[in-house]
Design a protein that fits this description.
The chain is α+β, with helices and mostly antiparallel strands. It has a single domain, classed as Double Stranded RNA Binding Domain. Helix content is 34%, strand content 17%. A four-stranded mixed beta sheet has the order 1-2-3-4. Strand 2 and strand 3 form a beta hairpin. The longest helix has 14 residues. The chain starts with 8 loop residues before the first strand and ends in a 9-residue tail after the last strand. The model has no long low-confidence stretch (mean pLDDT 89).
């Protein structure tokens, strides 16, 4: 998987991180919620912006893979990853 196209950023209210997938996949803006980072990537509740971005960077490959799958499954909808997207379905 390619590197993300632009620097991820934390929303003004701190509730999510926005990012883009590589151009070959789609140029839509994607997001992952803070709650998903807390539940699945060990982000501490109340963590500051720099810790959120570090946690995102550490989980970047997994986050991008899930975002790509969601984008391909629903190309006409915005990609906002939540905790539900990281639950293993059996």
């Amino acid at each position: 998987m390619d590197v993300l196209d632009f620097v991820p950023s934390v929303s003004s209210d701190g509730s999510k991180i926005t990012f883009r997938l590589p151009e070959r996949i789609g140029s839509e803006e994607c997001a992952i919620t803070r709650k998903a980072l807390e539940a699945h990537f060990w982000l501490s509740p109340g963590a500051d912006e720099s810790r959120m971005l570090k946690t995102f960077a550490d989980g970047r490959n997994r986050i991008a893979a899930i975002a790509e799958r969601k984008m391909r499954a629903r190309p006409d909808q915005p990609v906002q990853l939540t905790s539900d997207d990281f639950v293993t379905k059996r």
